[in-house]
């Protein structure tokens, strides 16, 4: 929705007039009715066939049956049914074959199967037709409502404007995106509060050996790599609601898990990363501005916001070029530098262990994924496209050890 | 009196007249085309059903033992038939019907081409 983007607005009513759509729907409905009567006929045949099978099965039980034999059109006389195992079966087209009861049953079975195949085929065509009817009706309704088709050119503008142009790409989703933003803001605030709670809790817990943690993390990594759906984790439950509004649930899960497992002194730093990555992941479409404020306030080490908002792969392309990236990168770099030495030391440590510490949340699409991915767990790459932080330009500075990669 | 097919052709023509076709030279020819095509469709449907039925019969006949009795209903009479003979007859019938269908397809194509060319000449 950048200014000056050319676009066309065409009301759907002009493309498909509602009356025509309704007429088409009626025509197709007529075909559906026809097919349904045919279907009823076939189903009648099927039931007749099964009744016949049961009769044929029961006849040879007796040597002879006492019956009332029809005589002419309106008369019966008592008689006996003999040779109860011999049947003259109509094969079709005037041909009869003499068969036993068992063989007759086989023939009838085969006939029944063929008919059922016909019934299935007919049902399938009916479903298609009904789908057509629905489509026509919905088009007619949309045309009446006045829904318009908006087409805008995609203009590749660098940096700051790329976000908006990205949005214009999905022009039909812009309204949804804005609504998402509002919803996500609230969820985001909720999530932040919860994350801080959890962090405090984890800090209170005794720090286990880092190996344990890394082990756990590796496990989570592996699990994540499997495309994990971890419905069991309680942490994920509340995030699930948040997750609904976000593009990928998988990403969200992966983020949460490492956070849980980490009990390190590294934890905090890593948590920050997880946090930021989590935030970024969650926020997806949320404007970067908001992310920046909150993310920076909470973490010592900040990754550029863009890095995280890659929940949408499509958006990631644009985001890589976001204007704020240089700004963010610098600010984040400065933040890192500003942080106390311990932190830096920690970051370094993290870097060395970071690969194991994080199960992978962050992963972002990188224009230059190669160097990053080598350090990553391959399992991660399944779930995530890229690796470390975005901004190829800045990528090097990140990799130098300040940025935690994951 | 009228066969079902010709009756159908007439109904089509009548309905077209109801829509407002004037009985001029050209449009009458068009009407005949439409009627012919409809007839063709009908016959083709009939043949297709028969073909399906005969194929089923052939399948069942193949499953029969050598000494089984096969009868053919000719009018009100059930006539005993030889299994081999019945097989051969059914196969020949299948071939005949397939040939008929092909011929009808060709005719249908001709009719459609002529109809289209007539339409173009009318619109021009």
Note down, in words, how this protein is organized.
Chain B: InterPro entries: PFD_beta-like (IPR002777), Prefoldin (IPR009053). Chain B: This is Prefoldin subunit 6. Chain B: Residues 94-121 form a coiled coil. The complex is a heterodimer of chains A (406) and B (124). Chain A is mainly alpha-helical and 406 residues long. Chain A has helices at residues 12-15, 18-58, 101-145, 160-169, 174-204, 210-225, 234-245, 249-261, 266-283, 288-298, 305-308, 313-320, 324-338, 341-357, 369-375, 378-383, 392-402; strands at residues 7-11, 65-71, 75-81, 86-92, 95-100, 148-152. Helices cover 66% and strands 9% of the residues of chain A. In chain A, α2 (18-58) runs antiparallel to α3. The two termini of chain B are 40 Å apart. Chain B has a two-stranded antiparallel sheet with strand order 1-2. Chain A binds chain B through residues 88, 91-99, 107, 110-111, 114, and chain B through 50, 53-54, 56-57, 59-61, 64, 68-74, 78, 81, 86, 90, 93. β5 of chain A pairs antiparallel with β1 (70-74) of chain B, so a sheet runs across the interface.
